[in-house]
Every structure is written in structure tokens, then in C-alpha cells.
Amino acid sequence: MARDLLIALRHRSDVLTTFFFFVIVVSLYPLGVGPERETLREIAPGVIWVAALLAAMLSLARMFGTDYADGTLEQLALTPQPLVVLVIAKVAAHWLTTGLPLVLVAPVLGLQFDLPADSLATLSWSLLIGTPVLSLLGSVGASLTLGVRGGAALTSLLVLPLYVPVLIFGAGAVAATVTGSGAHGHLTVLGAMLMIALVFAPWASAAALRISLE
Amino acid sequence: MSINWFKYASPQSFYPLAGRMVPWFMVPAAVLGLIGLYIGFFVAPTDSQQGEAYRIIFIHVPAAWMSMFIYMVVAFWAGLGLAFNTRLSSMMAHALAPTGALMTFVALWTGSLWGRPTWGTWWVWDARLTSELILLFLYIGYMSLAAAIDDPRRADKASAVLALVGVVNVPIIYFSVQWWNTLHQGASVSISRAPSMAATMLIGMLVMVFAFWAYSIAVALIRVRLLIMERERNSAWLRETEGV
Amino acid sequence: MHWGSAAEFLAMGGYALYVWGSYLVTALVICVEVAVLVRRGRTLRARAGRIAGPGSD
After folding, report:
1. Is residue B14's pLDDT more than 50?
2. Measured between alpha carbons, how far apart are the two ends of chain A, in Å?
């Protein structure tokens, strides 16, 4: 994982591109929808969350792609270290470079949409819990499509249905805080999803990696 | 005397069996379909609330049920193929998927047309339709992944993993969409709630369900034979069976 | 039977567009699915026949 982070640092541009994509996409919505504060507050949770999904998906190819291309992945697979550990390391690196920046910048973006302070907190929490799930689920899609024609579009197609529940409860949590009904339930469900994803996704991705590397 | 099921696990022996089975499902499908349509149009009464528009139910519900059932069967066969390395199981999954996807499309189409006169819009984000839409994406994902990988063995295994991940997620997705729907629509009723059903309506619908089920099996058997032909095209037994 | 005439049947109480729109598209889907399969079968068999060559092995 340290190695992945090092590489990410060296290829800062990749990481920053995804980050700025997220920021720009979120900023586009008011331009498209109009500056009315009521409307913006209503759409903010959905907009920010969808942008998070897209940003996560865009960077999935990098998770295994570069290592696969230059053969390092196969070598890593041959080591005595179980593939699951490798997957977890990759997911962690992906999250640290993609998800975490989103979590940190989202409150600022939320201000653009006139979200009240408590909603901003919920937004951060929901993203904090949810973006690792996106990375975990994304690893399954990325490992299945290694070196396959159709690339990023195919991976996105595979992964989007799986992302839908995360989106529903993530955005729902923030919306619930805005309307005052409390996000506790949503965040709990998100937490449950994180637990389940932590248990199953690395295992599924490892299996998929083995299949892709055969 | 026990039947050696594994005998039919090879494409070579299943091919003729499937061929013989097709009419045994296609004919009942047609017959049941005609009976179901007859009941649906000439026996079942007009609904008090929805008028004649409710008659779409005789297609919408069977299609929706089949779309979900077939996905589980796809995951089953794909999983079997993955676990036991049997080519035929994977082929069966690939054979079923397009039919399942078409059923999902029909469910969405008829759902939309049912919603228009009942709720005034061409699309309703109710739990069932939204879940069907996501299910369609799951089918398309499965078929796309299998199509994108050239090596059939890798395609079989990768799509199997995807199908299994998908089938595990279906209840999660359905639950999430239900939650989302009740949150946003409150007390409004789902269009897929059937009108309080007269017995004849229910019978007609069930007959159509069986018709769709038999049809799906027949079509899947035809398609799996085609898949066998495609994959085994270089083998002698196939050339002898189908060759001039 | 509760249809007074064929015209009534076709009109479906004013919902003709929706009811027949549904049934016809479904019928179309079924026909297309089967037709595609039949065509694929013919192509494959023709190809297998050509490979086998005139007369059997």
C-alpha cells in the first residue's frame, strides 16, 4: 500500500484531476439549474453524491490497471501474500487518493448550495462512511474488467447498479438532516453496507483478479 | 436404477436432449398463453377503478416475475459453472440472460404504459419500476462483460462472479429503492399494486405466468443449443449431427 | 363475454393505446427473439455443413 501511495504522489496529476473533476461537476449544477437557494438546497445531497460516484468510477481503472499493464500485478499475485491483502491495500490507496479528498472538500461545496451547518456535518459523515464502500465495490468491477475491451465505460456499467444503494442512503442521510428528520437511520445503514462490503468485496475482487490473471 | 445426471453435463449429450425438450415447453407456452389471454380479455371483468387499462397486468406481472426469477437462475447456473468448472452450466446462464433482459424490458414498457393512464405520467419512480430498471442494468452488465472478453473460459468465470455479486445485491437494491420510494412519495400507492383482484383476474395472471415461464425455458433451450453449436463448432460430433 | 362489439374490444374503454401498445410490443419482442434465434441457427448449420463438406466424413 505504501508503494501505491508513493506512486499516487508521483502521479499527482491523476489524483488531482479526479478531485477537480468532482469539484467542477458539483459546481456545474447551479449553473445548469439556476441559483435559487431553495432548489439548490434540495438537490445538493444528490448532486454531491452523484459526483462522488462518478469520481470514484473514473479512477477505478487506475486501481489495478497500471500494475496489470506493466506486469507487476502478476508478480504480486505470485507472492505468498494472499491476494485479498493486495486488494485491500489497493482499495485503501484508492480511497485515500479519491474518497478522502472528497470527504474533506465536500463541506465547502455544500456551502455553495447553501446547506445548513448540520447538513454539512451529515454530508461529511455520509461520504466518510460511503466512499470506502464505493472503493470496495469498485474494486470488484475493476478486477473483473482488467485488460478488457470497453474499459472504463464497461466498468462503470457493471459498478453503477451496485452503487445505487450507497447513493440512496448517502444522499438520503443529508436530505433527512435538511428536512429535520434525522440521518441516524441512514448512516447506520451506510455503516452496515461498509461492514458487509469490507467482508465480501475484497474476497470477490481477489477471485476476480485470479480469473483475470489466468 | 439411478439416473446419471452427469451424463447430460456434457454439451454433446445435452444438445440432442435440449432439442427434444424444446417443443415440450414451446407448445404448452403457446397453449397457456392463449388460455391466459382468453381469460384476461373475455372472462375477467372490468376493473372498477382502472377500467380496461388494468388488463396490462396479464403481461406486466408475469414479465416482472420472470425477469427476477431468471436473474436468479442465471446466477445459479453461472455459480455452478464457476464452482464445478462445467462449461454447460455457464452456457445455460448465458442462454437465459437475454430472455431475462427482454422480460425486464417488457416489464418496464408495460409498466410505463400502465402508469400513464393510471398516474398521468409515462414514468413513475415507484419501487418496482425503479428496481426493474436497475435489474435491466444488471442484465446488460452481465451480457456486456461476457461479450467483451474473448476467451470463453475467462468470460464464463468473470461474468459468473458478476452475476453472483449482482444476485446478492438484488435484495439490497430492492430494499434501498423501497426505502427511497416511501420516503419521497409518502402515502402514494405503487402502480404495481394490483387492483383488488377478482378470482378470474388472478387465475388469468397465473396462467400467463406459467406461459411466460414455459416460453422462457423453451427459448433458453434453443439458445443454449446455438451456444453449443458456436462453441463446439470444430468438434466432430457436431459436424456429424448438423453437417451435410 | 362483455364486449358488445369488435369495435368495443379494440377500443378497450378508451385505453386502447396503452393496452394494445403493451400487448403488441410484447408480441413483437417474442417474435423478434424467436426469429433471431432461428436465423442464428440457420447460419450456424449452414456453416457447419460447409465445414463438413459435401458428404460426411
Report:
1. yes
2. 23
- Taken in order B88, B90, B94, B99, is the CA torsion positive or negative? positive
Instruction: Kindly list the residues from chain B whose CB atom is less than 8 angstroms away from the CB atom of residue C53.
Output: 243-244
Number of structural domains chain A divides into: 1
Q: Is residue C4 assigned to a domain? A: no
- Taking the CA of residue B50 and the nearest CA in chain C, the distance in Å comes to 10
Q: Distance between CA atoms of B178 and A206, rounded to whole angstroms?
A: 32
What range does the domain containing C31 cover?
12-51
User: Between chain B and chain A, are at least 3 CB pairs below 8 A?
Assistant: yes
Nearest residue to B144 via CA among A157, A12, C31: A157
Question: For the purposes of burial, counting CB atoms within 10 Å of the CB of A142, is it exposed (0-12), middle (13-18) or buried (19 or more)?
Answer: buried
Compute the average pLDDT of residues B103-125. Answer: 88
Q: Tens of pLDDT along B18-63? A: 999 999 999 999 999 999 999 888 888 887 777 888 889 999 999 9
Domain parsing of chain B, residue ranges: 29-42+55-227
User: Which domain, by its residues, includes A89?
Assistant: 2-213
ipTM for the complex? 0.87
Q: Which residue of B has its CA nearest to A160?
A: B137
- When comparing pLDDT for B9 and C56, which is higher? B9
Mean local confidence (pLDDT), A105-117: 90
Report helix, strand or coil for A51: helix
Checking phi first, is residue B188 left (phi over 0); if not, alpha (psi -120 to 50) or beta?
beta
pLDDT, tens digit, 9 for 90 and up, residues B168-206: 988 888 888 888 877 665 434 455 555 567 788 889 999
Which residue in B116, B226, B237, B240 has the most chain C C-beta atoms within 10 A of its own C-beta, making it the best mutation to test that interface? B226
Strands (E), A24-90: none
